[in-house]
Amino acid sequence: MQLSIQPINRSFAIEICNWRYEPPYDIYNWGSPPDEETLRSILDPAFAFHAIVNAEGELAGFCSFGIDGQVPGGDYGADALDIGMGVRPDLTGRGLGTTFATSVVDFASRQYAPQQLRVTIATFNKRAQRVWEKLEFKKISEFHSEKSNVPFVILVRIL
Ligand SMILES: CC(C)(COP(=O)(O)OP(=O)(O)OC[C@H]1O[C@@H](n2cnc3c(N)ncnc32)[C@H](O)[C@@H]1OP(=O)(O)O)[C@@H](O)C(=O)NCCC(=O)NCCS
Predict the structure, then answer these.
(1) Can you identify the CATH homologous superfamily of domain 4-158?
(2) CA-CA to 15 of 20 to 30 Å: which in 30, 62, 85, 130?
């Protein structure tokens, strides 16, 4: 699957909000239809949301770089670029996770030249952890979210 990464736009942001993941991944569902505040935050350059598109220009996933990928309660003292990522629901569970993540890692390395990449993942989400571990991300800490008390893990990859 040929993927490219480009800055998000409003119509892609609306599509993402309308995606629906099945349980237990429905915690990643956005509000549908999205309100203006949600769209504003997805389009806010501070969160660096990007669209992941296929060869036909269709939205296949999204990623974010920086603070959006952090969960309150985690230790983010080290200098690292945080990555958030979501694959379009109908494309999940088909063994494409590392293809998406590789595109995102390559893009992040070119665009931001960070020393380290970091992802924060809900502990229950073994599927997501497996994807990043296959790309040589290593678990460095575990914590409970300040807001929800949900357990999370932090993984990093030194570049
Ligand atoms: C997380 C996500 C990127 C993973 O991509 P994916 O294409 O669905 O994942 P894959 O189908 O490639 O599966 C990845 C691995 O997890 C394994 N896996 C699948 N379900 C699993 C489960 N319940 N427990 C453990 N491993 C599981 C697969 O077997 C595969 O491992 P393998 O390559 O060694 O066989 C994607 O599912 C997604 O965007 N999900 C919704 C949002 C989300 O979870 N976000 C988390 C933040 S990254």
Answers:
(1) Gcn5-related N-acetyltransferase (GNAT) (3.40.630.30)
(2) 130
Given the CA of residue 98, which atom of ligand 1 is nearest to it? 12
Give the pLDDT mean for 134-144.
98
Q: Which whole-number Å values give the CA distances from 91 to 59, 84, 159, in the listed order?
A: 11, 17, 28
Can you tell me which atom of ligand 1 is nearest the CA of 132?
A: 48
Residue 90 identity = D
Kindly give the distance from the C-alpha atom of residue 45 to the centroid of ligand 1, in angstroms, as a whole number. 28
Q: Is the CB of 121 under 6 A from ligand 1?
A: yes
Question: Is 125:84 a contact under the CB 8 Å cutoff?
Answer: no
In the chain, the percentage of residues whose pLDDT exceeds 90 is 98
pLDDT tens-place string over residues 31-68: 989 999 999 999 999 999 999 999 999 999 999 999 99
Cβ of 95 closer than 6 Å to ligand 1, yes or no, is yes
Within 66-144, strands assigned E span 81-87, 116-122, 138-144
